[in-house]
Design goal:
alpha/beta, six-stranded mixed sheet, 217 residues
Length: 217
């Protein structure tokens, strides 16, 4: 005798099936964890950039008086440095003048020379050109050097003790800032043969002592 399958009566709902499947539980903390991971990753990237000389190139210590001269197409052309390979030392060649006077000379529209830094007779340090730009001090090496001009009281070009101490301090800081070995310190004389800085050219032992003082700083 054939069996028949009963169908539910019209209008009646079937009872829900009971099974062993479990509903997937949502994980409300997952977006929060992803957000935290993104924040941590961004923090690491920013920290690495902040330590990079390229990102942090124009920052200088608080003991530097920043007085950037105007872009005039000559003394300050506004052109970026290709690289920083050496720190070039100069003397102003104008006995008895101050760092401020030399800065103001650089800042004239018709002046064609400049330096990144000026060190005065009392050891004051003035920045004239951003560290990311070329100065007009070291001829063909303007494209890859940071230049420092130092004031001097006498014609012989010898620096005062205060000027010398600031020169050692600034040169050592620049070497560290640009991750240069202390051997990457040169004279203008080493580029062109010009007697600059005069005292260091005419007194090689004084130059060697300066390099040693920078290394020991």
């Amino acid at each position: 005798m054939p069996t028949t399958t009963r169908r539910p009566a019209a209008g009646k709902r079937q009872a829900p099936r009971t099974g062993t499947r479990k509903k997937r539980q949502s994980f409300p903390f997952r977006p929060l964890i992803l957000l935290l991971l993104v924040i941590v990753a961004m923090g690491v990237i920013v920290n690495l950039l902040a330590r990079s000389p390229l990102f942090n190139q124009d920052r200088v210590p608080g003991w530097v008086d920043v007085q950037l001269i105007q872009v005039n197409g000559a003394g300050r052309r506004g052109e970026r440095l290709a690289d920083v390979k050496d720190i070039a030392i100069h003397y102003v060649g104008n006995p008895g003048t101050t760092a401020q006077q030399n800065h103001d000379f650089f800042d004239q529209p018709d002046t064609t020379v400049s330096a990144h830094f000026l060190i005065g007779l009392e050891g004051e340090v003035i920045q004239c050109i951003p560290l990311s730009e070329k100065s007009s001090a070291t001829n063909e090496r303007n494209l890859d050097t940071i230049s420092i001009e130092v004031c001097h009281p006498e014609v012989n070009g010898k620096f005062t003790d205060a000027s010398y101490a600031s020169l050692v301090k600034l040169t050592a800081w620049l070497c560290d800032h640009f991750d240069l070995g202390r051997e990457h310190v040169i004279r203008h004389y080493d580029v062109t043969g010009k007697l600059c800085p005069l005292y260091f050219v005419e007194n090689p032992a004084a130059w060697e002592q300066f390099l040693q003082d920078v290394k020991d700083y």
